[in-house]
Amino acid sequence: MSTAIDDDLWSAVGDPTRRRVLDLLLADGVGTASSLSEQLPVTRQAVAKHLGVLDRHGLVNMTPSGRERRYQVDEAQLARAVAQLSAVGAEWDARLRRIKRLAERIERSREG
Predict the structure, then answer these.
(1) Fold of 7-111
(2) What DSSP state is assigned to residue 4?
(3) Where do the structural domains in the chain lie, given as residue ranges?
(4) Of 4, 47, 77, 108, which sits 20 to 30 A from 83 (CA to CA)?
């Protein structure tokens, strides 16, 4: 596989709330912990912690704006995550094709 898997990156996007935060940021372009918490079933403090994780792993960029911090998705890092997912998917597709061929060979040998 040509794309190395970044376990920390996948740990960051593995959480459903963080994925929802990323979805909201992608839809709105930018958001704060306050604005995002209004759209999620978690507190502002919980959203801030999730944003901190996403920021540490480079999935969002933070810009101070008065008393708030404004976040937006780092599209290059998100593209890297998507490329990793595609590579893992392709690897599993190849494994499943090999398993299917093996199962078909076993079935043919039982019939013949």
Answers:
(1) Arc Repressor Mutant, subunit A (1.10.10)
(2) P
(3) 7-111
(4) 47
